[in-house]
Design brief:
Elements (H helix, E strand, L loop, with lengths): L2 H25 L13 E5 L2 E10 L9 E9 L5 E7 L7 E4 L7 E3 L4 E5 L6 E4 L2 H4 L5 E8 L3 E11 L16 H29 L7 H16 L1
Parallel strand pairs: 2-10
Antiparallel strand pairs: 1-2, 2-3, 3-7, 3-8, 4-6, 4-9, 5-8, 9-10
Length: 229
């Protein structure tokens, strides 16, 4: 083999080894593509697509109260579909679904129509015992049941109603009504009756130079007693 041919063979082998090492770095366990994680859960079955599915709990970890299921439902079919139920497998939680206006089922319009769950003016899906059903940081299995497509399941992240999720979180915060009413009623009774009596008696007794009828009577009696002196 000539010297020029051997040089060409060595150069080709070096190029192959370089490409192989780059490919290994890009597709190995440390590949950058494997480190990209979705911000929220999404899935598509049949004509139904669910995006940004999230379970939003109370903002404070020790607060008890409802949680909500949020997300956007798309219908790519030719007929409308209703969202019949939402369940959380493995829990005894009940999810109450309410349309944005009025009563009845939540209907997803056809031909690319959508319905948003959570947030002001949108349909809602409220989990009554939210803290017991889902824990922050977990990925909770959620199943959406539609009238035509059937069950569509995915795992949704559980996050507190803070930062980006503050506006779509549970609308009903833990009630503080009992403590407020207890503190208000004694203050109202104490401030009402004592303040009325003392303020009323000085005004009726009359003061010098007052134009009130009560203050005129003492001045008349005093002038009637002066001639007698």
């Amino acid at each position: 083999m000539s010297r020029s041919l051997r040089r060409g063979t060595f150069a080709a082998s070096a190029l192959v080894l370089s490409l192989a090492s780059l490919t290994a770095c890009g597709a190995g366990n440390n590949a950058q593509t494997l480190q990209v994680k979705p911000d929220s859960a999404a899935t598509s079955i049949g004509d139904i697509t669910i995006q940004a599915a999230t379970l939003v709990t109370q903002p404070e970890p020790d607060a008890k109260g409802p949680a909500v299921v949020t997300g956007t439902l798309f219908n790519n079919g030719r007929g409308a579909q209703t969202l019949d139920s939402i369940t959380l497998p493995g829990t005894g939680a009940t999810v109450k679904i309410t349309p944005a206006k009025g009563e009845g089922p939540v209907t997803v319009p056809p031909n690319g129509g959508s319905v948003r769950l959570g947030g002001e003016g949108n349909a809602s899906a409220v989990i009554e015992d939210g803290r017991e059903a889902a824990q922050d940081g977990n990925a909770q299995q959620v199943v959406f049941s539609f009238s035509e497509t059937g069950d569509v399941g995915l795992r949704a992240f559980v996050v507190p109603a803070k930062s980006f999720f503050e506006g779509v979180g549970p609308s009903a915060q833990p009630s503080t009504t009992p403590s407020a009413s207890a503190s208000e009623s004694p203050a109202g009774d104490a401030s009402g009756s004592p303040s009325g009596s003392p303020s009323g008696s000085p005004s009726e007794s009359g003061q010098p130079g007052s134009d009130q009828p009560g203050s005129g009577q003492p001045s008349d009696s005093a002038s009637a007693s002066n001639p007698a002196g």
